[in-house]
Amino acid sequence: MSDNNTSDLVEDVVELFDEDVSIDPEAVEQAIEKFRGEYKIPQDELRPLLVSQFQDKHDIADEELFGDSDPDEFDPISLSEMEEIYETAQANGQNAWVDVIVKFTQAWEPNTDSIQNVGLVADGTGQTKLTVWSNKEFPVLEEGETYRLENVVIEEYQGDLSLSSTPNSTIEVAEESIEDTNTFEGVILELNDTSGLIKRCPEDECSRVVTDGRCSVHGNVEGEFDLRVKAILDNGFDSRTVYLDADLTEEVTGIDLETAEQKAQDALDVSVVRNEMEEMLVGRYLEVTGSMYDNNIFVDEAEFQIGPREEDVDAIEQLA
Ligand SMILES: [Zn+2]
């Protein structure tokens, strides 16, 4: 450890607390010696420990220490940046305060009165959970509306990041509207059994997939033929279930509804359509754009990307 490092660190910590309390540099030095000497903590891991020790000692909440560093400047991040910002803040022993412009895409039922709104928000680069704690200053969020959230904090629970309001947050309806479509690219891992030529419930506004002549809501129905692909896309880190309607299914497989019905009739089996599509699609790279709910993407646009096809991979493996 160089003395230079230590004096920088001391200065840094003293400065951080400057607005709230005046800390004796010698006390910081002693704390550093103790952490280094007794607990063998490496120099570059000391800062968060020191900060939280002096926070405890002087009873200073995170909000006081980090919350109002730049309260007037609205500087929104993209949701795709959350992880990086959270990790950087963690490494510095700080909370991750951010501003965002997001659409409230899905409202969930709060399980306590102290929560005003909970649900999913999206901004075109990603989506995350948002919790708005009850506060008379905040508007009640409406599904489908876009909001400016200032000074909200990124939280982590079991590896998942989310956003949460605090008393320091500002929430208002945004003037700007945002794209809430998502793009995802990956290899098609598998086709769900309810892909290909399927039947849908004809009841008003239902259109659930009919299996063995039954709709899960309306019971036995005479289903109407439709064409779709429900598939798992995987990029090696993450996966999504993607839904392609009849037009998109035709676009990526070249099979239209009429052709599919003919194939099923010839084979006396509807699953031939799914199986043919599976052979065509599994192993190919697809980029999709659409609305995302949880891990599902309802696709508006789909495009094959250059990537190894399964048969190519097989061929290469046989050569090896
Ligand atoms: Zn139905």
3D architecture notes:
The chain has 320 residues and is α+β, with helices and mostly antiparallel strands. It folds into three domains: 3-60; 79-179, Nucleic acid-binding proteins (OB fold (Dihydrolipoamide Acetyltransferase, E2P)), CATH 2.40.50.140; 182-319, OB fold (Dihydrolipoamide Acetyltransferase, E2P). Helices cover 30% and strands 33% of the residues. It has helices at residues 3-17, 25-37, 46-58, 62-67, 82-91, 246-253, 257-267, 271-281, 310-319; strands at residues 96-108, 115-122, 127-133, 146-157, 160-164, 170-173, 181-191, 196-200, 209-210, 214-215, 219-220, 224-234, 239-244, 285-293, 296-305. A five-stranded mixed β-barrel has the order 1-2-3-5-4. A five-stranded mixed barrel has the order 7-12-13-15-14. Strand 1 (96-108) and strand 2 form a beta hairpin. Helix 1 (3-17) crosses helix 2 and helix 1 runs parallel beside helix 3 (46-58). The protein is elongated. The structure holds zinc ion (ZN). Zinc ion (ZN) binds next to loops.
* Number of E-state strands: 15
- Rg value: 27 Å
Structural class: alpha+beta
Q: Strands of the largest sheet, in order across it?
A: 1-2-3-5-4
Compounds present? zinc ion
Given as residue ranges, the uncertain stretches (5+ residues, pLDDT < 50) are none
What's the number of helices? 9
- Biggest β-sheet: count, sense, barrel? 5 strands, mixed, barrel
Helicity level, as a percent range? 25-40%
Quickly describe the structure.
The protein is of the alpha+beta class and 320 residues long. It folds into three domains: 3-60; 79-179, Nucleic acid-binding proteins (OB fold (Dihydrolipoamide Acetyltransferase, E2P)), CATH 2.40.50.140; 182-319, OB fold (Dihydrolipoamide Acetyltransferase, E2P) (Beta Barrel), CATH 2.40.50. Helices cover 30% and strands 33% of the residues.
